[in-house]
Amino acid sequence: MTTIAVLGAGRIGESLLSGLLNTGRPPEELLFTERSPQRAAELTEQYGIEHVDVPSAARRADILVVAVKPQDIEPLLDEMVPVVAPDKLVVSLCAGLPTKVFERRFAEGTPVVRVMPNTPMLVGEAMSAISAGAHAGEAHLELVEEILGSVGRVARVPETQQDAVTALSGSGPAYFFYLVEAMVDAGILLGLPRSLAAELIVQSAVGAAAMLREGEGHPVMMREGVTSPAGTTISGIRELEKHGVRAALIDAIEAARDRSLELGRVHETDE
Question: Are 121 and 12 in the same domain?
Fold first, then answer.
């Protein structure tokens, strides 16, 4: 029996616990930590999973999934380090934090796997990228793939690409939400009720995503399939290009990558 402890039961942590239960893992094999006693009680009542403190989780679990915000990592590590044995697998879901942030604090040889998930984990449609630290091997990566497969898709990437992944898929849902918000506002401007505008755009987004996932073709070809000569779509595309939307998106993703790098540097120098 492998016991998994989720350290930090926020939205991502709770979603992972729920996904593991939904794929058949018994609650007896799961633990979680949570600073709010009220929320901890609610989660235990809802899922039947035991709430424990950080040292207990670090002692009892075989796999420790760290799901706190990057700025909260040092106090958590202070609690973990005295009791984490080198045979534990540490899985970090902390944006921007390199595996060496953990490796420098734990005993030599402790395997660490870095993960960049995203919020569609809440509906079982996450895109998670994983990278092995210095002491993590194939078996560790396979365990992490199994865990994260309960809440979506998983890809392996070199750790050097994790900041780009953070910017692209970690922050990516927010960009889609931003575009949908703008398109709904446009529908209202054109005289549609908000509820109808939202339904039209959300279902269009779902359908477009399904076509992309099914491999209907390159996005350029798919866009051209909607773009008739002298039609409505090309008139809209012209305006998007005129206002530099493509360039703005590229700049936004690059800025997110740079911020991810900054987060990592802060904790690398926080000795």
Answer: yes
End-of-domain residue from the set 159, 180, 210: 159
Same-domain pairing of 251 and 210: yes
Q: Within a domain: residue 206? A: yes
Whether the Cβ atoms of residue 49 and residue 32 lie closer than 8 Å to each other: yes
Order of strands across the sheet that contains 112-116: 50-51, 30-33, 4-7, 63-66, 89-92, 112-116, 126-132, 152-156
70: annotated binding-site residue? yes
For residue range 189-238, list pLDDT tens digits in order: 999 999 999 999 999 999 999 999 998 678 999 999 999 999 999 999 99
Report whether 134 belongs to an annotated binding site: no
The reply to whether 68 sits in an annotated binding site is: yes
Tell me the C-alpha distance between 10 and 30, whole Å.
15
Neighbours of 234 (CB within 10 A): 14
- Residue 6's identity, in one-letter code, is V
